[in-house]
Design goal:
Layout lengths: L2 H9 L36 E5 H7 L4 H6 L34 E5 L2 E2 L24 E7 L4 H4 L6 E7 L5 E11 L6 E11 L2 H4 L1 E12 L2 E2 L22 E2 L2 E2 L2 E5 L8 E4 H4 L6 E5 L6 E3 L1 E16 L2 E19 L3 E2 L4 E4 L4 E4 L3 E2 L12 E6 L6 E20 L2 E22 L1 H10 L12 H7 E27 L2 E18 L3 H4 L8 E22 L2 E12 L3 E15 L2 E12 L3 H4 L1 E11 L10 E9 L7 E12 L5 E13 L2 E2 L3 H6 L8 E3 L5 E7 L1 E2 L3 E16 L3 E18 L6 E3 L12 E11 L2 E10 L2 E2 L11 E2 L2 E13 L2 E8 L26 E9 L1
Parallel strand pairs: 2-5, 32-37
Antiparallel strand pairs: 1-4, 2-3, 4-5, 6-7, 6-48, 7-8, 8-16, 9-15, 10-14, 11-12, 11-22, 13-14, 16-17, 17-23, 18-22, 19-20, 21-22, 23-24, 24-25, 25-26, 26-27, 27-28, 27-31, 28-29, 29-30, 30-33, 31-32, 33-34, 34-39, 35-38, 36-37, 39-40, 40-41, 40-42, 42-43, 43-46, 44-45, 46-47, 47-48
């Protein structure tokens, strides 16, 4: 039995009933995420989770990313700054239903914002949550339902709508200082300022402004006590994590020199089962950053001006700056697979990496293959600086019973990535030829030679978005016997651009072993949409919506949606939706782009090691003939409200996708080499050096599950108020083909298609009494199976993960509040995962217990 479910059912959760809404007074109409029609019901036909500013403060989270990524529906395949080996280091995204960041649409105040400057995992475009202002957030609405009929592309899994303050009275200042328990303590500092002036009703204008900042230290693997040694032989499927280097002719037991710097003589069998002899190897923990050092600042300003009784103008500006510093990796290792980019050929040139006869490190009479790490050049370091700007202005009002809104917006994300201590290909070829670099004893190398070899690079990227939106709605278009028909219609134009370049050193062929993600393209999108809200009978409303999009690159997409809301009783709401959605091919997938990445394959035709994994290079190209991914979404649920202080919501979702965009797997390419040998390049020994891939519309995917939302409130004059809440998500199915043309394989509850635990839950209890407020939060991530366990993996699953967060606030005075928090109260370590280096960073983090204190002053 699922224990968190049983406990959550026992404690329920913290909101008044949202289904019983009868009142003798007129209820204010609001716009709910997922619809353009203003309605009076808080609970609609689709499930929307609302996180208020008060709840955010009680959670102890210090960034927009932490808040959104902690929800139970963020079930897998999303990344934050722990993903340091990517082209998007320091960023963070959200992946509802485990369908990837590209299938979750992130909005600011209901409108689109530019995606991050370059792509995640070469093809995913997404909104960087770390670039968004925490202090300005009034609430966050998460629509757990496909919404392409309203918003267009990318809303297949759902929508995250971040609502920023449009009005704020007074001034609020806060400062926070905290530290984690691992290593010497990863210190974090936060501050925020929020202010507003002007009363819209009395002064005909108002202005709100916020500023927040964060600085956090770097956390390396060598700082974390339980993983810094890299020795996991006591774990199922674990081994001694050491990198073998400095050897001749593919034989790690033929050493170049002896122990030097971090290199130590190590038993070969302790690293690789079945091997014998001694090798030179090093522990790369000190070269592995788990969480970067970050410095972030965000600013937000909004002004509203009344033009007349029925019309107002508004303008807003959002700014985000983020700098992430991290260790990119150990010093470069040179081997027979050493390459450089040939921009004219759009291919990689293999660099001759043999020790010539007469070289001080070549003991033989023929040129000799070798592998060596250039430790004396220093650790490779990376700095990513990201800047986000968004300007939006518009006019809205009412006329003849219609609400209307017209706006123009521009946003852009820019990246400047610098990397130090790469290696200059042309200087390397010179020192290799003339023997002036000593691989065996690098202490003998002159600083002049080292400086010739060292290379620093700059990689720029920019993504921009221009939007023009106009819409109008009426809650009372005309009357039917059961009530008023609501209607909304509108149009949208947007232009998307992305220019993600590589460094000049790569283009000139100067940089050795380059990783490349070049994207250059743009497109224009025009759309028309309409929506009807129809009262069929008393308490039964049907919503019909449709959207037609035209893309300048692939063509057209049509997205219909039908939903129903039935208030069966004051205490029971029934709801359901059926829709068709789409994800347009991203610019890296469909426009001019090329990427170079590195991985490993097992090649049965390898003349030397046909059963062992070997590193290869992949060159990936875009495809201008791509069509959008299509989806069919179905949702059904109810909200049960036994009392005005309790509710139980249960929703089932089912999403079927077709035409998923991807590349042929390495295994498929190798298995079909005889049919298409052009996709494989082999070296002079017959070993694979390069694989060529191109994006195409491939297989299908099916996912389904349930969301349970429990809320309960207890009120007492003597003992204060107790609010209980729990959001639980259960994945029933997550199925994809393992390779092209194969039937679907269910990966729910495994790491077959990224880690997709079947269960995820967040439960909280908030007690408020007098000047005190205390919140205890329980975060639960269920266990999941190892899809491809190693031979010596005696435990075939990854254990569940439980953490508890405690936040306590004390109102020192009318305007002053002191808040103390402890995240991961029990200092629980992430569960061991043999398929990764040690744990899955998409599900947990290595900081351990984190404690902080925050002072807030409002005047």
């Amino acid at each position: 039995m699922f224990k968190p479910l049983a406990i959550a059912l026992a404690i329920s959760a913290a909101f008044p009933a949202i289904a019983a809404e009868t009142t003798p007074n007129k209820v204010e109409r609001i716009t709910v995420t997922g619809s353009n029609i203003r309605v009076s019901q808080k609970a609609g036909a689709t499930a929307v989770q609302v996180i208020s500013a008060k709840e955010i403060a009680a959670s102890g989270k210090t960034s927009v990313s932490e808040v959104i990524r902690s929800i139970s529906a963020n079930s897998g395949n999303s990344y934050n700054e722990q993903f340091t080996g990517s082209f998007s280091a320091g960023t963070s995204g959200v992946s509802l239903r485990g369908l990837g960041q590209k299938n979750t649409l992130v909005l600011i105040n209901g409108k689109r914002i530019s995606s991050y400057a370059t792509a995640q995992n070469l093809q995913e475009t997404f909104v960087d949550l770390n670039s968004l202002p925490m202090a300005a957030v009034q609430r966050i609405e998460i629509l757990k339902d496909g919404a392409s009929s309203v918003y267009g592309s990318d809303a297949v899994a759902g929508v995250v709508n971040i609502i920023l303050y449009s009005e704020f009275k007074g001034t609020e200042l806060s400062a926070e200082l905290g530290s984690s328990t691992e290593g010497t303590g990863q210190t974090e500092k936060n501050f925020s300022i929020k202010t507003g002036f002007g009363d819209f009703n009395e002064d005909n204008f108002n202005v709100v402004f916020s500023l927040d900042g964060q600085k956090r230290d770097q956390l390396d693997q060598s700082d974390v006590s339980w993983i810094k040694e890299g020795d996991f032989r006591n774990q199922p499927g674990g081994s001694l994590n050491r990198t073998i280097t400095n050897y001749y002719d593919g034989d790690p037991t033929r050493h170049i020199g002896g122990p030097q710097g971090p290199l130590q003589l190590t038993d070969y069998g302790s690293i690789t089962n079945g091997k014998t002899g001694q090798v030179l190897a090093y522990n790369d923990a000190s070269y592995s950053t788990l969480i970067p050092e970050v410095e972030r600042y965000h600013a937000f300003a909004r002004a509203n001006l009344r033009i007349n009784d029925d019309t107002q103008a508004y303008a807003e500006y959002l700014y985000g700056f983020s700098r992430a510093n991290l260790t990119f990796g150990a010093p470069l290792t040179v081997s027979s697979t050493l390459r450089a980019w040939n921009n004219q050929k759009q291919a990689l040139d293999t660099i001759n990496n043999k020790l010539p006869v007469g070289h001080p490190n070549n003991p033989g009479t023929t040129p000799l293959d070798f592998t060596a790490t250039l430790f004396d050049l220093g650790t490779r370091l990376k700095t990513d600086e990201v800047t986000l700007h968004r300007i939006l202005s518009g006019v809205k009002g009412t006329a003849l019973g219609w609400d209307w809104d017209a706006s123009l917006g521009y946003s852009q994300s820019t990246l400047e990535e610098t990397v130090q201590n790469f290696v200059n290909r042309y200087e390397y070829e010179k020192v290799l030829k003339d023997g002036s670099y000593n691989f065996a004893d690098q202490s003998k190398n002159s600083e002049a030679v080292r400086n010739r070899l060292r290379l620093s690079t700059l990689r720029p990227a920019k993504s921009s978005l221009i939007t023009a939106d106009i819409n109008a709605s009426s809650a009372e278009l005309f009357e039917l016997p059961a009530g008023s028909v609501g209607f909304a219609a509108g149009a949208q134009f947007r232009q998307e651009k992305m220019d993600s370049r590589t460094s000049d050193a790569v283009l000139s062929g100067t940089e050795l072993r380059p990783a490349i993600n070049i994207i250059k393209g743009e497109r224009k999108v025009t759309a028309l949409f309409a929506e009807f809200n129809i009262p069929v009978i008393k308490d039964l409303n049907v919503n019909l919506a449709a959207r037609a999009d035209h893309y300048s690159d692939f063509g057209n997409a049509f997205s219909p949606k039908a939903s129903a809301r039935y208030q069966a009783a004051d205490w029971l709401l029934l709801r359901g939706t059926a829709s068709r959605g789409f994800r347009a091919p991203s610019l890296p997938e469909i426009t001019q782009s090329s990427a170079v990445s590195y991985g490993s394959v097992i090649d049965p035709r390898d003349p030397i090691s046909p059963t062992k994994s070997r590193g290869v290079t992949s060159i990936i190209a875009a495809n201008s003939n791509l069509q959008p991914e299509r989806s069919d979404n179905f949702n059904l649920g109810f909200v049960l409200s036994p009392t005005s202080d309790s509710s139980i919501g249960l929703d089932y979702y089912n999403i079927k996708q077709s035409g998923l965009i991807g590349t042929q797997s390495s295994a498929d390419i190798i298995a079909n080499e005889s049919r298409d040998p052009s996709k494989i390049v082999r070296d002079e020994k017959g070993r694979i050096s390069t694989l060529y891939r191109q994006y195409s519309n491939m297989g299908d995917r099916e996912t389904s599950g349930i969301d349970l939302d429990l809320r309960q409130r207890f009120k007492s004059k003597d003992y204060g108020n107790l609010n209980l809440g729990s959001q639980i998500s259960h994945v029933l199915r997550f199925a994809e083909p393992l390779s092209t043309g194969e039937p679907l394989t269910d990966g729910a509850g495994s790491n077959q298609f990224g880690s997709i635990p079947k269960w995820r839950a967040v439960s909280d209890a908030t007690w408020e009494i007098g000047a005190w407020s205390t919140t205890l939060t329980w975060n639960y991530i269920g266990s999941y199976d190892q899809a491809n366990p190693s031979e010596n993996d005696t435990v075939k699953y990854v254990d569940s993960f439980n953490t508890f967060d405690l936040t306590a606030s004390w109102k020192l005075a009318k305007d002053t509040t002191l808040t103390a928090k402890v995240l991961n109260l029990s200092n629980t370590r992430p569960p061991w995962d043999s398929s990764t280096d040690f744990f899955d960073h998409t599900q947990a983090d290595p900081r351990g217990r984190f404690a902080s204190a925050k002072l807030t002053y409002k005047f």
